[in-house]
Please model this.
Amino acid sequence: MGSGNMGSRREVLGIGAGMAALGLAPGLASRAFAADRKIGDAAADRKIGYAIVGLGYYATRQIMPNFAGCENARLVALVSGTPAKLEQYGSEYGIPPSYRYSYDQFDRIRDNPDIDAVYIVLPNSLHAEYSIRAAQAGKHVLCEKPMATSVAECQAMIAASRKAGKKLMIGYRSRFEPYNRLAIELARGGHVGPTRLITAEHGFPIQPGQWRLDKALSGGGSMMDIGIYSLNAARYLTGEEPVEVSAVESTDRSDPRFRTVEDRISFVLRFPSGIEANCISSYSSAHNGYRVIGTQGWIAMEPATPYVGQTMTIRKDGVTAPRTLPPPARNQFAGQLDHLAECILKGTTPIVAGEEGLADMRVIEAIYRSAAERRHIEMTA
Ligand code: NAD
Model:
């Protein structure tokens, strides 16, 4: 696994020619382009080329460095409104100038056959617009969570990808993280007896002065940003969709951070099997964990969804013990980049397709409605 086996052979055979075709000296072959096409391997003849849209924290610190650990994905293009970032990251990753785009030039990605997929890492309210434009440009899309800021936007994104015959995946990275995958298997497999209750908490004290606190850009407060991890976990640990939602919001509106978005929401989801999930989403306290409670014990993940350091403890039949796994060959970031690439290459559907983002957004809208109207909301199919 990984790209550690890239040989000089590939560079000799493929990359020099590619660079020449771009009008570049082969000596400019860089990490992105030299980071290996599988020349001569007919079954996996090429890596899927990604364009990253939005060069902020998550894109530059977590996503872009992890292409190095991918087997089927490579970084080929950048889209940003800041010329200095295009220059900085373009140089660092060896992206030629003609593969660096401003937002105004975004639709020109249509004419670049090396871009197979576009990864949208923009503020939430821009996800729908850029995902739809990417699909219209004939590209597959990986879009960060939350998928968008409303059910209607999610539906429009799914429709655009379908119309284009392209894939749409949402950046639910925990689904590519081994401990979360094991938790799903254990919870759904009844390892601690049938699941009766799930608790899930996610939050952090947010710093002022960022787009996350501007509803026009974020679409909402903690629920859209960090609480979605509690919600998504409750859904993936059960494999069910909630039939009833109730929520209570606690926001100090005199706190300048919370002029337009909510701070804390506590919400309860009832699932068809009778499982109940008690969840917290917060912008003023530090939480990261969930617990699956069955008739014979519990599975605790704390922390559950950080970038690294997931920790699992299981109590079963009166015995409590940590559960550890060997380090994965691919981390969760490389895993999700490769997953979409593999789906494209094999013609399969991502495990976290647009419908998964839409399902979360339906529940988020119900959570907001329940909190505003102070009543239970029944979910209709
Ligand atoms: P960020 O503020 O660091 O980056 C956002 C980028 O968008 C910046 O480069 C900014 O210049 C650009 N941008 C373009 N148009 C903009 C506009 N009109 N207003 C403000 N910025 C604009 O944010 P981030 O933390 O990188 O988050 C980006 C997306 O990634 C969000 O949707 C967020 O939810 C998601 N995210 C996901 C994870 C995860 O673990 N899956 C982690 C962090 C962020």
Observations:
- The first helix runs from residue 8 to 21.
- Residues 76 and 111 are 14 Å apart (CA to CA).
- The chain has a mean pLDDT of 90.
- The chain has two domains: 9-173, 175-329+352-378.
